[in-house]
């Protein structure tokens, strides 16, 4: 029989708990002290009851002992709970940190497959459910088990016949409870999955809230959220139903045990097998026995919930990450092109997205990549950045095979500007210096902002470069795109990759970008995916893509005369506008 693979989440949780063994050991000792007070208290009460009525019996000592025992138990229980909670929260912090660190290193297709909202759900509600394992599994269940063992031992010493009645009754109840625990785990898994879908759906709705409102689609947009919340509620109700059955079953077991003990105890009292003090002590232990037994039953249910959450967190921690290889760049041949692709194929979702693509990008100059939507232009950049792995073919960076480069070192040689929003909810300074190990001076940052026409805008903000985007500072799509371009300028990358960099720019800033690209092309390789005539104007050569293939590479005039696909692009954009921009 094959061994079940170990959960990476539970392995991480175990390692985190072991690192805090001192605090947890103290919590366990205090919990045992609290449990011991619960064991001793009924014996002290029985001693006091035995002494009542005796003329010369001094009850001061047992009463003082009882008070000290009760107070010590209460203090020890409270302090144990605090130590356990603090250690548990730190363990969950470790898991969340590990999830975040691993998630950002996942391959881009894996992140898209899991879903950003689902990943966030794993870091939030799912990780929180792991407290059931750190609290219940590490301390509560073992201490409760010790308490049950201690109570049963003392009860056996008091009267083994009444103990047999008690154990038999609770054993029958535990068999029924076990069936409900299985249902709790399945319900917990369904609930967590529904909450993950809710997070994913909510993220998509609120990311495009302006569009939702513009189309008066609030009700339609929240329909998937309603379905997810309904599924979560249904699963939670199933879990609650199973949980709710545990208490009555345990209570029923207690009631039957009490009836049995009273019946058998009456016989034992009349026969003199046990005195009244011992009988009262036995009853007190019976009443106290229910609490740790209930804790064991409910704790087992919580463990099932925690294991269900761990299974979901495993989907992130166990997902394939990008290689973490480190080291220097490979040996680079002199005078090699910046990029070279040879017969590259890319298949995504069983669809051939790039088909036998061959392309060479010189060390300096601007290469524009044009073509209709869906031609594979953005996929081309994703291959170069290693977000997408080619199905076949060969890719070189600066003359060395791309897969021979440590992935971090390869990306350091390239700077990417994407079309979509790429600003983090942090300060402008941190956004501009993303990925840098040093701290550029304010003057250098402002120079980069000046190049994209944002210096005065940023200077006017109350906190300037330290203004936090998203916290009262809202920038337009065009301004964020220019910030992304400024970020690329601040790198020492030999290659700039720009995906529709002028998509959100007005005419003035678009012309500023054209001049900037022309200047950058004198020192670096610039690959710009675009459909804007003015941006193409900055290009020394143009690569035309169609249906995943590079069908032609040449200058504008030659392509216009010889390439039907390029003429179609030119026609779509307005050949007259392009000619005017190039004049």
From TrEMBL:
Gene Ontology CC entries for this record: plasma membrane
Compartment(s) of residence: Cell membrane
GO molecular function, one term: ATP hydrolysis activity
Domain ABC transporter: 339-572
Domain ABC transmembrane type-1: 26-304
Transmembrane stretches, start-end: 62-84, 132-154, 160-181, 256-287
Entry-linked PANTHER family: ATP-BINDING CASSETTE SUB-FAMILY B MEMBER 10, MITOCHONDRIAL (PTHR43394:SF1), ATP-DEPENDENT PERMEASE MDL1, MITOCHONDRIAL (PTHR43394)
Protein name per Swiss-Prot or TrEMBL: Putative ABC transporter ATP-binding protein
